[in-house]
Design a protein that fits this description.
One of its GO terms (molecular function) is ubiquitin protein ligase activity. By secondary structure, the protein is of the alpha+beta class. It contains 6 helices and 14 strands. The longest helix is centred in the N-terminal third of the chain and has 14 residues.
Amino acid sequence: MALHATSSRDSVRAAAEGEPEWAGDASRRPAAFYSAVFAQIEEVGWERLVSGKGDGGVSCLVFRILDDQGRNHLLEITLPMNYPSSPPCLVADVPYLPELQWSKGSRLKDVVCQFQEHLKILQDYWSIMDDIDKVLWVVDPTKPTFAMSHRRIALDHYQSKFNFITDSQYFKHIIVDGQFFSGSADKKFHENLSTVLDFALPPPPSVNIEDDEQVDCGICYAKHLPIDDELGTHSGGTTDYTCENPSCSRAFHSVCLRDWLRAITTTRQSFDVLFGNCPYCSDPVAVKITDR
């Protein structure tokens, strides 16, 4: 479930005003540092802030970033002691991180903007990976993340792991058993792969995922919603919506998915139903609008 801006702002400010966990006031940064960071968070948007921890709640900030296809990404930004003289450290679920352009006048919004531009570069990459997960029988990983750049797929008589070269032609070059092949730029990856292997590739099997195999919500990352009267019948509830794409099968709280869809500009509404795309595989999803 998306955090409200007031909750993030109040929690971070409260942490900054409290005592450090590990030492006395000597370990704290100058007061001007906290004011500057608060101002920079304001520029990015408190509604994007998921959490803040360390050194009064501002040393490590996690922001929620949506890419052009509505995929949900968490960007962790760690601020060094001599920030902003030194650039922050980034952690994110992407195949590779951007080379951060930084100067003493740079701010958190510059980091977020550069990360968003980096996500634009990766859109074709993820779209092709989504297509692979949807069209081919992927054996490993069973729950792919945005950072994973390999797939082990089942063939007619054996399983093979393919290394993908992610150049500007995105998956037009293929390495199979150490041999390099160039595919057609007019064909999709799985079509080029089928041509290289000279046989049709099997589609994914129809597999029912056990209920206890995935119980965490793909949006709020919790098994249960908070116990809150405002949530009504959903208070304390478990995940109650699953993506119908068998290669995805991500579970969500319908409340979280509804709030997430409402934040996406491409979401459509018809009567009491919201129509959009899964945050993970981009397949169509639909959720009813109900009172909490």
